[in-house]
Specification:
Low-confidence stretches: 1-9, 478-501
Strand order of the largest sheet: 19-20-17-16-15-18-21
Helix content: 25-40%
Number of helices: 15
Radius of gyration: 23 Å
Structural class: alpha/beta
Distance between the termini: 49 Å
Length: about 500
């Protein structure tokens, strides 16, 4: 505190959270932000790029070169920390759970390392590191409390993630997530619905049910139909307009879930279901519990029940032992499934996974060539499928920040019920994120649609009101609000009502 400050003034402590990886990590970062704000920190302005009192890295161990990326970013912050007394750096998430003490050894200027099971301890660990002037490494081996009981600073006023489970019981040979997030643990359905109802009461109109293996929900209680029942229960929540979920596993995709999707009006006609490979041989080596025929059979049933459903997937190219014939089977499956989009990944070794030590690792140049062939096939299919949308009249939920060129093109962006991204002509009347507009699709590109004509209808919503209220509140905050230093001790858990994922599902 400078001598020019008035007596009794308290420094504002700012924070920045950087997130890598899956939707589960994104939602965990919302909780980390909520914890820090409850402890008295203020979010640093966008674009701070490390110019904050506390910088938190929420890491991923699944993506390629995740550790190199982390240590590169930590290295760039080291001189900044030297110049800024009192600055703290924390590393959490899957890579922290995996590497533990290695992080502090490689980057001794890190103050706190915490894992996936104890994110609620972050404010306490920061305070302890500050008082003791030494790094705090605390990795819980099992979940201490379901994370949805923690305070949350949600990034959107109109759409929200809702975790229904954490962890995973699968043993896919390319995936390290079960070792880092533990066995599956389900929330009680009453707690989930209470959180959803509270969110809707705050103005949220779209929720995404989130789990590492979301449709295995109910395994804790032995109810194989629990997920379908949960979808139907979401249909009875008044004011909840859109329900989505990610990511399901084909092994657990049962007919009752398809029926629930088709028969529950607010469950959107969208399905993201990772295929990973179209080859039965590769699927067996991956330890995936389905084969191509089973996967395509699910797609066929979904399309029969929900004709306009947009289906997307994840695919790994170049898994150890993958032959040209195996890869051709993947191309065949892609052509049969006709995905709206596919998130394609080149296989790379993940230390600690069985696949990393398998024989017949595929040369990089072969993987690259197959990857490019797959992308070309999928791009063509995506474009053809999007062209089928031209002439359709769709209701879009207006989105915030989804169209990078919207300012230059005088357009806004929104999401169709099937989650396709649509850029539309900005109407004369006010339209807010969360509001719903009706448009006619006039043009299709592989990754988006255009509605170039006049907007047919604008429906203001409670979600739009919530977005406007949040923005007004943020604009009204005076610069340099004095919230005080973080208090010592664990934050009091909020009621559940106030309160994934990886490309490996």
């Amino acid at each position: 505190m400078s001598s020019s400050e008035p007596s009794g003034a308290v420094d504002v402590r700012t924070y920045e959270v950087r997130t890598y990886g899956c939707q589960m990590n994104v939602h965990d970062s919302e909780r980390l932000s909520g914890l820090l704000e409850e402890a008295g920190y203020v979010r640093a302005p966008d674009g701070s790029d490390g110019d904050a009192d506390v910088v938190v890295f929420n890491t991923c161990a699944v993506r390629e070169n995740a550790d190199n990326r982390l240590y590169g970013n930590l290295g760039r912050l080291a001189p900044m920390k030297t110049r800024r007394p009192g600055m703290q750096i924390a590393v959490g998430g899957c890579l922290a759970q995996k590497d533990r003490d290695t992080i502090v050894k490689k980057a001794p200027w890190v103050d706190v390392v915490f894992g996936t099971h104890n994110i609620g301890k972050l404010p306490v660990l920061l305070e302890r590191a500050r008082v003791q002037e030494e790094a705090q490494v605390e990795i819980a081996e099992s979940l201490e409390a379901f994370p949805s009981t923690l305070p949350t600073r949600r990034e959107s006023a109109y759409a929200a993630w809702v975790s229904i489970s954490v962890g995973c019981n699968n043993t896919c040979t390319f995936c390290i997530v079960p070792a880092l997030r533990g066995k599956e643990k389900d929330r009680r359905s009453g707690e989930i619905l209470a959180e959803i109802e509270a969110l809707v009461g705050e103005g949220v109109s779209e929720i995404t049910l989130l789990g590492q293996n979301v449709n295995a929900y109910g395994s804790d209680i032995g109810d194989r139909e629990a997920f379908g029942k949960l979808l139907r229960a979401c249909g009875s929540v008044e004011g909840l307009e859109r329900v989505r979920f990610t990511s399901p596993h084909p092994r657990d995709f049962t007919d009752d879930v398809i029926a629930a999707m088709a028969e529950t009006p607010n469950v959107m006609p969208q399905l993201h279901m990772p295929m990973q490979s179209g080859s039965d041989t590769v699927l067996k080596a991956m330890r995936r519990s389905y084969r191509q025929e089973r996967y395509l059979g699910i797609i066929e049933k979904v399309r029969a029940a929900i004709p306009h459903a947009a289906i997307t997937t994840d695919i790994i190219v170049g898994f150890p032992g993958e032959t040209e014939e195996d890869f051709e089977q993947t191309l065949h499956a892609v052509r049969e499934a006709r995905f709206a989009q596919a998130f394609t990944f080149q296989y790379s070794k993940r230390p600690g996974t069985p696949a990393a030590t398998m024989e017949n690792q595929i040369p990089k140049e072969v993987v690259q060539a197959r990857y490019e062939r797959l992308v070309a096939v999928q791009e063509e299919i995506s474009w053809e499928e999007n062209k089928k949308q031209v002439g359709r009249t769709l209701d879009l939920m207006v989105a915030e920040g989804e169209g990078r060129k919207d300012g230059a093109t005088h357009r806004l962006s929104g999401r169709a019920p099937d989650n396709r991204l649509v850029h539309f002509t900005k109407p004369d009347r006010e339209v807010r994120p969360g509001d719903v507009v009706t448009v006619e699709i006039t043009y299709a590109a592989p990754h988006h649609l255009l509605a170039e004509g006049a907007v047919l209808d604008v429906r203001p919503t409670r979600a739009g009101d919530a977005w406007q209220k949040r923005n007004a509140a943020q604009a009204a905050k005076p610069a340099g609000v004095m919230l005080g230093l973080p208090r010592i001790g664990a934050p009091q858990p909020l009621p559940v009502a106030a309160a994934s994922g990886c490309g490996c599902d």
